[in-house]
Amino acid sequence: MGQPRRVGGTLALLLLVLLLEGAAGSVGQPPGALITDIDAAPPTPQLDGLEWTFVRIKYSSWEEQLRAFRARYWSDPWAIDGPAAEQNLSRRLGRVTSIAVKDPVTLTLSDERLWEYPWIYFVEPGNLRLTSEEVEILREFLLRGGTATFDDFHGPVEFEVLRKELKRVFPDREIVKLSPKHPVFSCFYQLTEYPQIPGLGSFFNGVTWEKGGHQAGLHAIVDDTGRAMALLNFNTDMGDGWEWSNAEDYPGYIRYTAQAYRMMINEVVYALTH
C-alpha cells in the first residue's frame, strides 16, 4: 500500500445546501455559522494534495442470506444504494473540501488494485462472509494504514454477524464505541452527536430505526496507536442518505441526508489524515 493516507435547481437541493452547511458548522466556521452556497465552503489547505476514491467492496454472503436479500431488495447486499450513493457523496466531498476526488470504483478484497486506495466501504455487512484469504488481506490492509467503513447494519443479529467476521480478522481486538469527543467528530464539521439516518422504508413508516436497532452509534476497531482503522456505522443508513439526497419527492428526508453527508465527510477526512 505504500503510504495509504497520502495516495491517490430544485427546492430540495437548496434545502440540502442550507442544512449541510448550517448548524454543524465546518472548518474555519464557528458553531451555528451558515453558508448558503455549498461551493462557498472555506479553504481547507490542510487537505491540499490528498486524493480520495469511493471504493465499494464486493463480497460474498451465505447462500440462504443471499437468496432472502435478493428476494426482498432485488440486489446483492454489497451493491445496495449504488451507484447513486457513491456518486452523490463523491460530488459533495469534492465541493466542500480541497481533496482531489476520483471516480468511484468497485473491487473485491483480492483485487491487486486494492492497495492503491486508503479507504474502502462495505454496505449491509450483516450479510458479510469473508473467505480465509480475504480475512488475511483485510487485516493487512488495515494494519498498513488503510481504513474500512462498514455501513447500514442494524439490530443485535446483524451486529453479531459482523462482530464474528471482524473477530476472524482481529482475534485480539474488540469493537469499541466512539464518543463525540473522538477526533472523527471534529476533524472537519464540528459534530456533537452521532446521527441515526433512517433507510427510506423506515422513513415512510415514521421511524428512524429498523430490525430492533433503536440506538445508533459509531463503533470502531483501533490499532496500537489508537487510530480507528475500522469504522462501524451501527443502526444507521448513511448510504440511503446520500442515494436519495436529490429526490424531490421526499422533501422531509432532506434533513437526514444533510446529517449523513456531514458524518461521512468527517469519517473520510479522518481516514485520510490519521
Explain this structure to me?
By secondary structure, the protein is α/β, with parallel strands linked by helices. Mean pLDDT is 85; it is low at 2-40. It has helices spanning 11-20, 63-73, 84-96, 132-143, 155-169, 200-204, 238-243, 254-273; strands at residues 51-52, 55-57, 100-101, 105-107, 119-123, 147-153, 176-177, 217-222, 228-234. The protein has one domain (11-273): Domain of unknown function DUF4159 (Rossmann fold). The strands form 3 sheets. Strands 5-6-9-8-7 form a 5-stranded mixed sheet. Strands 1-3 form a two-stranded parallel sheet. A hairpin with a 5-residue loop joins strand 8 and strand 9 (228-234). The chain has 8 helices and 9 strands.
In short:
The chain is an alpha/beta fold.
- CATH level-3 fold name: Rossmann fold
Shape: globular
Strand order of the largest sheet: 5-6-9-8-7
Percentage of residues in helical conformation: 25-40%
Residue stretches low in confidence (pLDDT < 50, at least 5 long) are 2-40
N-to-C order of helices and strands: HEEHHEEEHEHEHEEHH
Amount of beta strand: 5-15%
What is the gyration radius calculated from CA atoms?
18 Å
Structural class: alpha/beta
The number of strands is 9
Largest sheet: 5 strands, mixed
Q: How many structural domains can be distinguished in the coordinates?
A: 1
| Total helical elements | 8
Look at the structure and give the mean pLDDT: 85
For the terminal residues, how far apart are their CA atoms?
A: 15 Å
CATH class: Alpha Beta
Please identify, by name, the CATH architecture.
3-Layer(aba) Sandwich
The named CATH superfamily = Domain of unknown function DUF4159
